[in-house]
Amino acid sequence: MLAGRYRRLGRIGQGGMGVVWRAYDTDLEREVAIKELRVPEQVTEQERRVWYARMQREARAAARLRHPGIVTVYDRVMGEDGRPWIVMELIHGQSLEHLLTEQEALPEQQIAAIGLAMLEALSAAHSHRIVHRDVKPANVLLEGDRIVLTDFGIAAVEGDATLTRPGTVLGTPAYMSPEQIAGQTVTPASDLWSLAATLYAAVEGRPPFTALTHGALFIAIATQDPAPPKCGGPLAQVLNGLLRKDPANRLSVTQIRDLLTTVTGPGTKPDTQSCRSVDQQSATRTDTLSYTDDLTLPDDKGRSQPARAAEELPVEQEAVAIYRRLAEADPDRY
């Protein structure tokens, strides 16, 4: 029994640092979801305090937001061992990630509807000066017609003291923006990139960038363009307009809303003619690197040399270092 009132009934899901349980609130006689923080035993006491503080920040950030597209936080309680737990509404549905494992790709109208709901939820968070920083299919829950954004565990809250060391990379690599992987300041535009990456996965059945290692993935995000999406029209305009390297060049919320509404609006039918097979997508930009091209980086004397192996540096340090070297060598491009 947690905090003398929450009885765990069963595990809903598990991530890298936490577990979400279905539980019963014996005081209010209702089912809830509770999030348990699990910190590896080998971390230092200082690191442990940072993770506890981040969990508390998640509760505060989500509790500020009252929006049907954002999971409602009811309470934050402390366990007997001093760990914080978050009590929130129980969503009776599945994640977009789980749905994509079953269907691989979704119809355009459904994708646009999901995109609109996520856009409104993110706009609500941004209006409270909260940047989510981890928008991805696993954090989008589907409950009937309701679409809910969850997990503000690494959200950046304006006015709160930072919990992240300079240069540290937080987020899920495949859905992170170029500025995120470079360890730069995140903004609402960073969440919009991740929104587009999530919708791209719903169109293609995979994220816009894939690679065998995190380092290679970060380089791809920083230096390459994604393959053109299978479906054209307004939905493709949203994807292409948000997956731009420079945050200042990404579409505005109003532009995104207008384009997605064109797809979901009354009388709109799925544009089956705009959906192309993989074989028909061979026409890609020739001025960007393919996923399998070997990268060469300039050394201190300007000579080309192969990129360092991923094992030589921690993932985040390697990717940030490579990105910065690329930017120094060709600032106009990066």
TrEMBL record:
GO MF, one example: ATP binding
Kinase is among the record's keywords: yes
Name of this chain's protein: non-specific serine/threonine protein kinase
EC class (word): transferase
Biased composition (Polar residues): 262-283
Record domain Protein kinase: where: 6-263
Family: Belongs to the protein kinase superfamily. NEK Ser/Thr protein kinase family. NIMA subfamily.
Taxonomic lineage: Bacteria, Bacillati, Actinomycetota, Actinomycetes, Streptosporangiales
